[in-house]
Amino acid sequence: MNSRIAAAVAAILLVAATLHAQNDRATACIGLANTPLPNASIQTAESITAGTFTPPGSTNAISNLPPFCRIAGTIKPTAESDIRFEVWLPLDKWNSRYAQVGNGGWAGVISYGQMQDQLRRGYAVASTNTGHQVGALFDAARFAFEHPEQLVDFSYRAHHETTLKAKAIVNAFYGKTADKAYWFGCSSGGYEGLQEAQRFPADFDGIMAAAPANNWTRLMAADFDATLAVLKDPASNLPASALGVLYRGVLAACDAGDGVTDGVLEDPRQCRFDPGTLLCAANQKPDTCLSAAQVEAARRVYRGPVDPMSGARLYPGMAFGSEPFWPNRDPANPFPIPVSHYKWLVFADPTWDWKTFDLSKPSDYQAYQKAEAKLAPIMNATNPDLREFRKRGGKLLQWHGWSDQLIAAGNSVDYYESVLSQFGGKIADVQSFYRLFMAPGVTHCSGGPGPNTFDVQAALEEWVEKGTAPDQIIATHLTSGVVDRSRPLCPYPQVAVYKGKGDTNDAANFSCAVPAKGTR
Q1: What does the alpha-carbon distance between residue 75 and residue 130 come to, in Å, rounded to a whole number?
Q2: What values do phi and psi take at 473, rounded to 5?
Q3: What phi and psi values does residue 200 have, to the nearest 5 degrees?
Q4: Whole-angstrom Cα distance, residue 488 to residue 471?
Q5: Pick from 59, 49, 4, 42: which is nearest to 25 by CA?
Q6: pLDDT at 88
Q7: Among 140, 9, 130, which residue's Cα sits nearest to residue 74?
Q8: What is the distance between the alpha carbons of residues 36 and 136, in angstroms, rounded to a whole number?
Q9: Rounded to an integer, what distance in angstroms lies between the CA atom of residue 183 and that of residue 156?
Q10: pLDDT of residue 356
Q11: What is the reported pLDDT for 18?
Q12: Residues of the chain with pLDDT under 50
């Protein structure tokens, strides 16, 4: 009985100590409002202890949150700048790590969804709106129209400035710097992470860059080219039924090529498929074949944009197997991100009509070239020289779903190959700090028919803090909450290879290996 009483007393004392520490931290939180920060000011310093928080301008509360200190402020490195940022600091059980999370699309908002995930993991976490407030879909890039400094903020400066300010706040609150600093982002967030590795290699110890939009200006050309391919001429439109025909045709031609017939292509580059094989014959039902115009539209989407003068590829096309998820179906609602880019940054004309664009026209080609020369040095994160990032011990984990419907998966392969070339083709040197994982059957940032649930963050933490580089990452697929398939994701250029026996839905029956020459 005495031992039970002692245990109960100890539990009560622990709770009391925790509450006391929280009260002390809550008081310290309010004091952070006076933290001196260069070119920045703090508007909000408050403790959130009820477990719920409703973001500004929203009616949807975030629940199940641990107690934290919320700091919201503004950074103005230039007269044009208006960078909003937030930092969330656990009141107790801080894991001594700092995380910064990325954005999506044209950003313009604080990434509260990702912040809550990191807070629950015990991180002190920050996010920025990248220097502007979100606008209407087709006017999302208007913030940069005649505001070049705001374009710089969006492209890279807002994230770096937020990093500096957030780290200072962490230090002021806890009385120590974070043991490790991490970046986590997908899409624009992956792009932002690569900007950090290339431009500010001292900011983060570990960077997770997923499906990165890092070759931004070329990506806009690719997405816009795909839009024009299927929407400019009604005869070329690829509705869901046509995309289904394409997808089934791809699987019939290539699914078994990786040794397992499972509805997923392990490496779509090994697939040899021509949509011309699906051309409608006389009296064939339309939902089982494609018209000649649809065949050419599909070929254009698979190919990606090319320079009309030189014929050189500007950006990879969509991978085989991604067809069901292609977004360009409704002529009244084209994919808005590239349309906004061309409207406000390339042509800088509020009255510009996207349907008039033709890269083969001299005037449009000149506008494209002029914008490329002006914008690419600011917006693109394609510099392969990661020597400084490597020198200070940084680790970069990049992943990309092969069935990504918004950012062609080949873009990640292109960047990895450029880094490998920068390092003289020495794969061991590159993989000592940078590894790329391609995820078969996974769509943009998540989802898809392939094994699409995996924890890259845990793998990155192990690599940064224990020196254990990931030789594979186990991914699972769930149906109704139950795992029905698992598969290893392998560091590029390796792929998962079936061992020849055992359940093909079990990752244990696969190994990672480099494909034989000639199969790619």
Answers
A1: 10
A2: -130, 125
A3: -135, 65
A4: 9
A5: 49
A6: 98
A7: 130
A8: 35
A9: 13
A10: 93
A11: 46
A12: 1, 8-20, 518-520
70 forms beta bridges with 46, 88
For residue 507, the Cα-to-chain-centroid distance in whole angstroms is 25
Contact 312/301 with Cβ under 8 angstroms? no
- What is the spatial distance between Cα 159 and Cα 154, in angstroms, rounded to a whole number? 8
Spatial CB neighbours of 370, under 8 Å, sequence gap ≥ 6: none
Residue 519 has what pLDDT?
44
φ and ψ at residue 294, rounded to 5 degrees: -70, -35
Helices (H), 399-501: 410-422, 427-431, 456-466
Q: What is the pLDDT of residue 505?
A: 96
Tokens of 398: 């990049």
Distance CA 396, CA 182 (A): 10
Catalytic residues: 187, 404, 444
Q: How many Å from the N-terminal Cα to the C-terminal Cα in the chain?
A: 71
Q: How far apart are CA 269 and CA 212, in angstroms?
A: 19
pLDDT of residue 9: 47
Alpha helices in 56-182 (DSSP H): 112-120, 148-152, 158-174
Helices (H) and strands (E) in the chain, counts: 14, 13
Residues contacting residue 516 through CB under 8 Å, at least 6 positions apart: none
Tokens 């002390």 belong to residue: 24
